[in-house]
TrEMBL record:
Matching Pfam families: HSP20 (PF00011)
UniProt superkingdom: Bacteria
Organism: Kribbella pratensis
Protein name: HSP20 family molecular chaperone IbpA
Family: Belongs to the small heat shock protein (HSP20) family.
Entries under CDD domains matching the protein: ACD_sHsps-like
SUPFAM superfamilies to which the protein is assigned, alphabetical: HSP20-like chaperones (SSF49764)
PANTHER family: HEAT-SHOCK PROTEIN 20 FAMILY MEMBER
Domain SHSP as annotated: residue spans: 29-139
Length: 140
């Protein structure tokens, strides 16, 4: 192999890594761009959903909606980094939907954001719909 062939091979390898550098890296990408990790549980008379959303401004970056028995958490992130002659721009959006349990009071949902954790609390009414047997009418 000649020096020219080695240099050309290294250039191709460098081009490959330069191309891959532009792709999203799931290990270094902020968690808010990969997806929302949540925990959900029922506690006494309320249903609680906690979502990891670090580094966001809840007033402008996070949206919580409730409709038709579904809780939707949406977030967007925009980040710019400037380092001398180089700058990078990261952005991403995500949405996570959770089915609310029976008896959820959609009109009394409360959300708070503390130390990168969004906590959504949904009161549960004692009159949750119970399963009942339905009589089937039969006609010939």
């Amino acid at each position: 192999m000649t020096t020219l062939q080695r240099r050309d091979g290294r250039r191709q390898l460098a081009d490959l890594f330069e191309w891959a550098e532009g792709l999203p890296n799931l290990f270094t990408m902020p968690v808010t761009m990969r997806g929302v990790r949540i925990e959900e549980f029922t506690e006494e008379d309320k249903y609680v959903v906690r979502a990891e959303l670090p580094g966001l401004d809840p007033a402008k970056d996070i949206k919580v909606e409730v409709a038709n028995g579904m809780l939707t958490i949406s977030a967007t992130r925009q980040q710019e980094e400037h380092d001398g002659a180089r700058s990078e721009f990261h952005y991403g959006a995500l949405t996570r939907r959770v089915l609310l349990p029976d008896g959820a009071d959609e009109q009394a949902v409360v959300a708070k954001y503390t130390a990168g954790i969004l906590e959504v609390t949904v009161p549960l009414s004692a009159k949750a719909a119970e399963a009942r047997s339905i009589t089937i009418d039969h006609t010939d």
